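Input chain follows. Return C-alpha cells only.
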Amino acid sequence: MEYSPNWPRRKLRLLGQRFRKASAVATFLIGIVTGILGVAYITYGRRQTKFAPLMAGVFLCAYPYFIDNLIWLCIVGALLLAAPFVIDF
C-alpha cells in the first residue's frame, strides 16, 4: 500500500459524508415521530377542547419542514412536546 499525502483528507471527507447521511436519516426519523406525536396532540386537544395541545400538535406537525439542523430539531421538538404540560388554557 502506497502512502498518499492526501490520505487523511480523503478519510475525513468520507467520514463527513457518512455523518451527513446519518444526520439526514435521523432528521427524517425525528420528523416522522414528531408528526405522529403532533397528530396525537391534535386529536387529544380536539376531544378535550384544549387549545394548548391542539396548537402544539399543529406546530409539531409543521416545524420539521422549517428546521434542518438536527440539534435544533430535537430542542424545538422537546419544547413543543412539553408545552401543553406547562401552558394550560
